[in-house]
Amino acid sequence: MSLTPQHRLRPFLVTLAACLTALPLVAAAQQSDPSVVTRPPVENPGTFKNERVEPSNEPNAQPSQGGDKPAASAGANDVKPSEGIGIFDRMGAKLPDLPPEKTYKGPVDDAYGAFQRGYYLTAFQKALPRAQLGDPAAQTLIAELMSQGLGVKRDTKNAAFWYGKAAEGGDASSMFKYALILMEGQDVPRDRKKADEWMKKAADAGQASAEFNWAQSLTADNPGLKGLQLALPYYEKSAAQGIADAEYAVSQLYMSLPDISPEKKSEARIWLLRAANAGYDTAQLDMGVWLINGTGGKPDLEAGFTWMKIAAYRGNVAAQNKLSHLYINAIGTKQDPIAAATWYVISRRAGFKDPELEDFYLGIEDDQQKAAIDAANKFHPAK
Question: pTM of this prediction?
Answer without folding.
Answer: 0.72
